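Bench notes, afternoon.
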Amino acid sequence: SMIAGGVYAYVSGAPFVFMKLFGLSEQQFGWVFSFLAGGIIFSSQLNNLVLRKFGSEVIVRYSLTIQTAFGLVLFLVSFFGGLTVLNSMLLIFLFLCCQGFSFPNTSALSLAPFSKEAGSASALMGAFQMGIGAMAAALVGALSNGTSLPMTGVMAGCALLGLLIFRIGRAVLEKSKR
């Protein structure tokens, strides 16, 4: 659920960053937004092939780690004033590609223990994702300071928190199995 917040932060902050800060027209922004959305679509399709060789847990571990790295690089480049249209597009594309691997696999792992209550569990998970997404988007707006930092910071923060939650959750599960 936490990683969905990073996508909502991007969606809420991207119009300001690309149109106001970088001066793209509405049409240019539409093309950029479509290209970046393609990252999630492409990687979620590629995920089907990767699942043939690796399990969901392995994919999530790597995708969350890589997504967090891209999120932190995006934030640091923004923080140090080096964000451009091209490097932001590249870093956001790669961040969103990780989402295409993370989202379906974290969903599968989260729902696995609730086979008898799959519908209710799925609805609750969706509600959490929407709630976290709404909070992330609101945080981007609340932190608005005329820079790209609110968007990039919330994206990086959501990825980092998602990774930490995953790592802590795996450690707790391993400990409970002993």
